[in-house]
Specification:
Elements lengths: L1 H22 L39 H21 L6 H17 L3 H13 L7 H18 L10 H4 L11
Helix pairs in contact: 1-2, 1-3, 2-5, 3-4
Length: 172
């Protein structure tokens, strides 16, 4: 039953991400809005859309389920960032930004969502490239690890931990 909840949660998250592509009109493919992770600023036209929204989910009482959900979620998010385009379009950047902002209000663990929502408001998603997105998420993961007194991960090796898997399919 536990596995069903984790799978159902991941399916909902994937559905939200995919449907976010259809919610926004195709806009120009302008990728010339660079910004650095160190600055931790959201692009002007992205900020304020979902930041600091009310957390929807209640607190999770079962510690084991909360830990399982956390591990599955980090795996999902890191894999998603590893597959994010190296040079995303403006629409792809906005989709990732919106997904992460909504994710911070909809995460099934209310306590976790509250903490993540505060962090994401202070350190908005970095969407200018695959590298920027994966480094941003690794930094956020480390902030959570620090709060939970868990080991800090070396973000310089994040790409080897969550390979893109973006190779062309082999001929069958």
């Amino acid at each position: 039953m536990r596995q069903f909840h984790v799978i159902a949660t991941l399916a909902i998250i994937a559905f939200m991400f995919i449907s976010s592509f259809f919610l926004f009109d195709k806009q120009s493919d302008d990728t010339s809005i660079p910004y650095e992770y160190a600055n931790a600023e959201a692009p002007e036209d992205f900020s304020g859309d979902n930041a600091s929204e009310e957390i929807i989910m209640s607190y999770m009482g079962n510690k084991t389920q909360k830990e399982e959900l956390g591990r599955a979620t980090w795996k999902f998010l890191h894999t998603m960032m590893a597959r994010y385009p190296e040079t995303p379009t403006r629409n792809e950047r906005k989709s990732l930004y919106d997904f992460m902002m909504l994710f911070s209000t909809l995460y099934p663990c209310g306590e976790c969502a509250t903490h993540f929502n505060k962090m994401i408001t202070e350190f908005p998603p970095q969407t200018s490239s695959r590298f920027a997105a994966s480094q941003w998420l690794c930094g956020m993961h480390n902030k959570v690890n620090e709060r939970l007194h868990k080991p800090i991960f070396d973000c310089s090796s994040i790409e080897s931990q969550y390979p893109c898997g973006c190779n062309e399919p082999e001929d069958e």
